[in-house]
Amino acid sequence: MIRVVLVEPREPRNVGAAARAMKNFGLEQLVLVNPERPLDEAAYRLATRGAADVLERARTVATLDEALADTVYVVATSARAREGYAGEVYTPREGAPRVRRMAAEGPVALLFGRENFGLSNEEMDRAHAVWRIPTGGYASLNLAQAVLLVAYEVFLARAEPRGTARPRPAAAEELERLFADLEAYLIQIRYTDEHRLEGAMRAFRRMAHRALLSPNEVQRLRGLLRQSRWAIAHGGDRVD
Amino acid sequence: MIRVVLVEPREPRNVGAAARAMKNFGLEQLVLVNPERPLDEAAYRLATRGAADVLERARTVATLDEALADTVYVVATSARAREGYAGEVYTPREGAPRVRRMAAEGPVALLFGRENFGLSNEEMDRAHAVWRIPTGGYASLNLAQAVLLVAYEVFLARAEPRGTARPRPAAAEELERLFADLEAYLIQIRYTDEHRLEGAMRAFRRMAHRALLSPNEVQRLRGLLRQSRWAIAHGGDRVD
């Protein structure tokens, strides 16, 4: 299943227009993260009757964590080039075949940011892939336009071939536990100073996201960290 | 050059939203055919400041003929499957490379119909190609959404290779003179009855549009019709 996640949308009517855009291309699951205002008359008017059911069944949650907990693949979208974002960036057309494949493995989230300033870097860090929608010189896609183009590309794409059978990828909440363990560990072993910790975590996140770790692999890595902490606490193989 | 032609748009704000969609993908020429109301405050608000210049330079004309007179290639768009339209229908992705090539030869028009019922069959007959935007089950793209998706595909497409050098294709007004001659001729020679004339003309139009006739070829065909009329008037080679 593919869900559209709107992060802190300001205007209910933009949510309505996004619902209509989704429905045109067969996407029906909408999640709103901490919207500024509840859905209203204007939202339903913009959705038109055809997409009213998308709004009726939309889920509102307080945090991005809740929206992503069970997802196996997350795409962050961006209408602009992101300064300071060093990860790999794909166009929707490049990335859509993978979304189609991952949707067969578990819930996939397509993440859209706020009308005025998009997604924060921390929110982008939650994604396996970032999609930038290519535009001409004047790039000012609104929320519903971005949803429309992304939904269109996903609709037209064929699933990427699956290759050899692979286990289901870990869900976001499992991965986040690994990242929490890792961050605590990096601090404990003084891997880097406070200022560089964020950048280091980002680099590790990217590797893990690219690897599409399975639940077993996540457990293995967490076990490695746990054993390392134990070794530190017990002096490891120090001979004294 | 590629122009967007909106046929009898009802709502100025839809024209504004379409202008914004165009501008995102580098299209700047907008022509309005017999709009129901003039552009207003709402149109400029929906265009946003970035696309206000598209509205300011938009040309309003009374007839489709005026909008298409100098074009060498015309695409009619449709968000729905057209019953009763027997011509070839492409998706925007299939058709976009040809639009890119033809735009190097002369003005190209992308034609969008009314918000409520699209383009009439007679208007579709003016096009070299019909594009249908593929959608999921619930197909209810609004005008600006249709413009956005078409502009996006044209923006991303590369020009189809040109093959051997070919002369510039005839402009729409030259072609229309050929069609007018042909229709008069069909009536004169009683080629078909009144009821089937429209369908016959449509079939001839399709052939001519697919052939991308040059101005010389159009003259040659009109000459053939003229000579045929002369022969009829003078008894041809009747031996008596």
UniProtKB/TrEMBL annotation, chains A, B:
Domain of life: Bacteria
Source organism of this protein record: Oceanithermus desulfurans NBRC 100063
Subunit structure comment from the entry: Homodimer.
Domain tRNA/rRNA methyltransferase SpoU type stretches: 2-152
Enzyme class: transferase
Function: Catalyzes the formation of 2'O-methylated cytidine (Cm32) or 2'O-methylated uridine (Um32) at position 32 in tRNA.
Any GO MF annotation of the entry: tRNA (cytidine(32)/uridine(32)-2'-O)-methyltransferase activity
Reactions it catalyzes: uridine(32) in tRNA + S-adenosyl-L-methionine = 2'-O-methyluridine(32) in tRNA + S-adenosyl-L-homocysteine + H(+); cytidine(32) in tRNA + S-adenosyl-L-methionine = 2'-O-methylcytidine(32) in tRNA + S-adenosyl-L-homocysteine + H(+)
UniProt GO cellular component terms: cytosol
Keywords: Cytoplasm, Methyltransferase, S-adenosyl-L-methionine, Transferase, tRNA processing
Similarity annotation: Belongs to the class IV-like SAM-binding methyltransferase superfamily. RNA methyltransferase TrmH family.
InterPro entries, alphabetized: Alpha/beta_knot_MTases, RNA_MeTrfase_TrmJ/LasT, SpoU_MeTrfase, tRNA_m1G_MTases_N
GO biological process, one term: tRNA nucleoside ribose methylation
Lineage: Bacteria, Thermotogati, Deinococcota, Deinococci, Thermales
Main location as per UniProt: cytoplasm
Known EC number: 2.1.1.200
Protein name: tRNA (cytidine/uridine-2'-O-)-methyltransferase TrmJ
Presence of keyword Ion transport: no
Compartments reported by the entry: Cytoplasm
